Amino acid sequence: MRVSKAQAQANREHIVETASELFRERGFDGVGVADLMAAAGFTHGGFYKHFGSKADLMAEASSNSLDRSLASAEALDIQGFIDIYVSRAHRDGRGTGCTMAALCGDAARQPDELKAAFAEGIECTLQTLAEKDPSSPDAAPADARAKMIEMFAQAVGAIILSRACPDDAPLADEILEVCHARMTASMSVQSETDPQRG
Q1: PANTHER family recorded for this chain (predicted)?
Q2: What separation, in Å, do the N-terminal and C-terminal C-alpha atoms of the chain show?
Q3: What span, in angstroms and rounded, lies between the C-alpha atoms of 5 and 11?
């Protein structure tokens, strides 16, 4: 039975969504095409009707999940971002959490096409955070950008380090608590020195 163009597009989007979650849970190398298609409810043979290779799907799924993460960040102020990102819920929600924290290590060993998708996602996230920074209009552009790189790197690093510990390890929580407190304190100091907020 022939599938309509609209249904074929819906099927492709479903495969991408499924892949995005599985890749974040298991890593790029932890998911085979057959397992991925089975999880999406399709046969292995149907994969190549939609994608030229697994690498093509990896890039598309990553871009998709990075876009979703960015949309979530756009709805938050800086403190809201810190509260949600550097949290136990995010740490434990691998399949639904940030693609950066889940897959940056994997992406570093992938082709440039996939690295480019991550670089674009990082750049867009930095720009979005910079727009939310209350001290950004008064800061030199290089300083404002450096501050956002530092904050985002600390947030991503906190999740990666915490996830590397056993789930019930006190260190897993300590890493999150320390990084959350330091990031919050840093934002508070910056807000207090911002003349528009004083």
Answers
A1: TRANSCRIPTIONAL REGULATORY PROTEIN
A2: 67
A3: 10
Q: What is the CATH number of the domain that holds 80?
A: 1.10.357.10
Does 166 reside within a domain? Answer: yes
CA 66 to chain centre: 5
Q: How far is CA 161 from CA 128, 174, 183, in A?
A: 24, 10, 16
The pTM for the full model equals: 0.86
pLDDT tens digits for range 16-33: 999 999 999 999 999 999
Answer yes or no: is 124 within a domain.
yes
- Close Cβ partners of 65 (under 8 Å, ≥ 6 residues apart): 20, 23, 24, 99
Residue 164 CA to residue 162 CA, distance in Å, equals: 5
| Cα–Cα distance, 1 to 4 (Å, whole number) | 10
What is the C-alpha radius of gyration for the chain, rounded to an integer number of angstroms? 19
In a domain, 71, yes or no: yes
Task: Indicate the SS3 state at residue 48.
Answer: helix
Q: How many domains does the chain have?
A: 1
Residue 198 lies in a domain: no
